[in-house]
Amino acid sequence: MKKTLPILLFAGFCLVAPLATAMNLMVGNFSGGDLEDWQSKSFQGMTRYRLVVQEGRQVLEAESQRAASGLVREIRVDLEKRPNLNWSWRVNNVLTGIDERTKTGDDYPARVYVIVSGGIAFWRTRTLIYVWSSLQPTGSMWKNAYTDNACVMALQSGKAAGWVSERRNVRADLNRCFDDDITAIDAVAIMTDTDNSQQEATAWYGDIFFSIE
């Protein structure tokens, strides 16, 4: 059950920082040094999250040594107004010898969650998980090994040379995953975890924000 907690939790770099405009909704202002609204959730040990300066910009660093913990921010986002989630990320290494579609292989050097709360009906909570996969091909999609209410999308695969920027239409991706036009999300989370594989991983996350385009 440990890996399902981010999914059920709310039942009850950009290397150049984006402009703070009415068109953007900032979720993770790491370049501004702001972690106030993020809560730590541990499942097995503690991944270390800290703000660091890399290539002249402040970003969030995650270091996992056989641990699994994440950072979660509760934030209601109207996907009819701002459907696009933007962020950048980088990994130092990927994991070896695992099958990410199984419970024993459910580890990732980096992942970003969007969570749709089921309210008191916690079993109806749905989660979309964007992952930097170690072995699955880019563009692949599968159900999380712990619950059918979580959908995993591999946006990157294997080790990359540097920062990668992402922009995803969350409303469209949720529809693709769950065949339902979901118009709002309730939380965003990030996690770097290696507890199942008993390996180590380091990743970095840039600012996270929702936009109209």
What do you see in this structure?
This protein is mostly beta strands. It has a single domain (2-211), classed as Galactose-binding domain-like (Jelly Rolls). 6% of the residues lie in helices and 47% in strands. The chain is built from two helices and 14 strands; from the N terminus they run H-E-E-E-E-E-E-E-E-E-E-E-H-E-E-E. It has helices at 5-8, 170-178, and strands spanning 24-28, 39-44, 48-54, 57-65, 68-78, 84-91, 108-116, 126-133, 141-143, 150-157, 164-169, 184-193, 200-205, 208-211. Strands 1, 3, 4, 6, 11, 13 and 14 form a seven-stranded antiparallel sheet that branches. It has a seven-stranded mixed sheet with strand order 2-5-12-7-8-10-9. The longest helix has 9 residues, at 170-178.
Produce the secondary structure layout.
Elements: H1 5-8, E1 24-28, E2 39-44, E3 48-54, E4 57-65, E5 68-78, E6 84-91, E7 108-116, E8 126-133, E9 141-143, E10 150-157, E11 164-169, H2 170-178, E12 184-193, E13 200-205, E14 208-211
Parallel strand pairs: 8-10
Antiparallel strand pairs: 1-14, 2-5, 3-4, 4-13, 5-12, 6-11, 6-13, 6-14, 7-8, 7-12, 9-10
